[in-house]
């Protein structure tokens, strides 16, 4: 029996892990593999954590470390110590980490120091902006991993440029798997559109959570001002991250929320329903950029660069930074890109990932 420890802690990781976990529970593998799910607690809000496990049909985590808040070093250090304790107790054959959060880095570092092979799912992404905590996390996780599962050819090329070629596989994007699996379920079961009073194709969906935007008062004010201008033309739905809501209040920017339809973080299926129905999506999230691409909804990204360059090259995504004028004009002038593009694979990234895992560990 092969034992894998999966380390997750944030919304995008729950979605990605669900696709791989579902394959591991299929008849072909369930008798040969055991998955130990470890939730660091990085996202502590119930709508960003517990409800995701319920809706995504992920087994309850065996461990919930309940570590959230604090500075990056403090949070990562606490996670490192706690994950190490779990790994010493469970003695897994391999550790799976996803994406680029502090949970990713803590899981990879704890495993590497215990000489447990690390598999990084969503490896090779680069924004080339070392001021982003996520860029540091993903680079370090890649260096610590012996299996690197890339979502695109660009990610493979990034690793090759850095001299990393062993154990690298382009398996496609597990997020694409998730989008195919849940899109119809979300249309049928999502209730957000009715609650928020919006019509398909007649509203903008916005998210904002990255530290580069929320921790800079000028950038945050520019974003909220730009969204307010859009709201004069069409409804803007803004599910507000708890940390962003706190920062808005601390910086005295509450008045900018008035024109927007602000809601708490949404359950996964509600968010997917809104993403598919929106006329345009405006975000600073890497995952939401891709989901917009998957559902063929134009996206406006409130960052100065993106690791998901394929969305820009395909004409579905435009980068506008945090400038109010560029945000408003980008959203109001958004239009579809080229159709038929498949840079993220064919929707079988999770089965290919599990197949490669068994090639490595079933020897």
Q: In angstroms, what is the radius of gyration?
A: 20 Å
Total tally of structural domains: 2
Average residue-wise pLDDT: 94
Helix/strand-derived class?
Answer: alpha/beta
Within CATH, the superfamily of the largest domain carries the name: Glycogen Phosphorylase B
Strand content: 5-15%
Could you list the spans in which at least 5 consecutive residues all have pLDDT below 50?
none
Question: In CATH, what is the class of the largest domain?
Answer: Alpha Beta
Q: What's the multimeric state?
A: single chain
- State the helix count: 17
CATH topology descriptor of the largest domain: Rossmann fold
Give the topology string: H per helix, E per strand.
EHHEHEHEHEHEHEHHEHHEHEHEHEHEHH
Widest β-sheet, arrangement of strands: 3-2-1-4-5-6-7
Number of strands: 13
CATH architecture of the largest domain: 3-Layer(aba) Sandwich
Helix content: 40-55%
Q: What gross morphology would you assign?
A: globular
The biggest beta sheet is recorded as: 7 strands, parallel
Distance between the termini: 12 Å
